[in-house]
Amino acid sequence: MSSRITSHQLNNGLYVSGRPEPPKEKAPTMSSTAVPYTGGDIKKSGELGKMFEGPRKSGQLTSGPLRTGSMGGGNTVHSGQISSHSMNRMGSLSGGVSGSGSMKKTSSGPLNKHGEPIRKSSGPQGGGLTSASRQNSGPLPPVLPATGLITSGPLNSSGGPRKSSGPLDSSSSIKSRTTSMVKNQAVTHLSEEDTHSFFKGFPRLVFWSMVLLFVMGFIAAVFILAAVGNPILLIVVVVLFAIVSLAFSWNVYWGRKAIINFISKYPDAELRTAKDGQFVKVTGVVTCGNVPLESSFQRVPRCVYTSTSLYEYRGWNSKPASPTHRRFTWGLRSIERHVVDFYISDFQSGLRALVKTGYGARVTPYVEESAVIDINESNKDMSPQFKRWLAERTLSGDDRMMRLKEGYIKEGSSVSVMGVVQRNDNVLMIVPPPEPVPTACQWTSCMLPASLDGIVLRCEDSSNPDVIPV
């Protein structure tokens, strides 16, 4: 039994054996053609110009996505706000899509919150694929307001910045500035303990040794007086105790003035010849660094040091400002002192050095404060600014005698700085000394030795309006 061999004819006329191969479907190819420069004339743009033949809705060009059908029948192109990037992409793809008709449908009308026209469709779309694919190139950019300006802050539903009606709340802005200053790491916050104190610099071992010697002397003098009846030792111990107590009281009361005199008499050094690690005193003009300060009450701008102190007078029945506040004296109730890094230009050499007083550095300021306002029962309602200042710090002002003092070092002031010179490459800096620097005894004024801790700042008259312009 024989089987018949099938054969078929090729396109060139030859007959070959075997069955003909099924026709292969040719995959659609995508080509990219260069878009000619039209100079802004849409009539010369080819397929792109047909998109704008119908009625158009003028508006601001944005970077919203362009929706087109993937293949097949009628494509829907939204005119209105389109980006140049989407136009170039559409022009390069319009010549390569096979089986697609010309862009015929255009839709204009109201825009949604993202700046795109609202698409309305009823029933299935025919003439091609049943579903349209959405093509996006890259991530979606943020929605810009209708004016095209890039603004800070949140946007409303229409894409523009939120607007608030009514007067601005100055107290909220002041609180935000105060909070930012407190949380800023570049600002050094000084407390009451950073002020000059005689007992703080005096050696505690020497102090307690003297106390022990006087106690033993009193005990021995009283024993000799009771046993022998000789009061000479007791008189000597009492006289010595009175002299030492008077010397301590003298140094406590005049100690700050003695330190200021020591700073003023200390010779100025020249930064050009100062060695690395040398303790120097530099006098020059102050220039603000990266973080300028503002005074708390008077709002003096461009400062490198600010100090605001609130004092209260305690009568017989008044409330104390602090646990150590004695009657019929002024006591410190609140203090705010801040200092940051700044520059100082030496008067002698003209060199400029960076003074490292920020970021929690040890600083001892000797800046004079001037009384800003005095409050008593008769004028307690005359200063709304002072009442607002108290309310921001949750301080009460109920029938108290108060005094507000403020001091500052503003840009352009003449300041004396004492610290250690540090040269790092081409940067000249003045940093705090590793240990407190002792002062010598001032025998003419009966002053005992004291110590200078950290960088010493001295400004004679901070409220002087005649500063050097920088």
Automatic annotation (TrEMBL):
Indicate, by first and last residue, each region the UniProt record lists as having compositional bias (Low complexity): 100-109
What organism is the protein native to? Answer: Tagetes erecta (African marigold)
UniProt-recorded name of the protein: Ubiquitin-specific protease family C19-related protein
Q: Where is the signal peptide?
A: none
Carries keyword Lyase?
no
Spell out the InterPro entries in the cross-references: At1g16860-like
Which stretches are transmembrane? 205-226, 232-254
Give me the stretches of Polar residues compositional bias: 1-14, 76-89, 149-159
Q: Write out the ranges of the annotated region (Disordered).
A: 1-177
Keyword annotations for this protein? Membrane, Transmembrane, Transmembrane helix
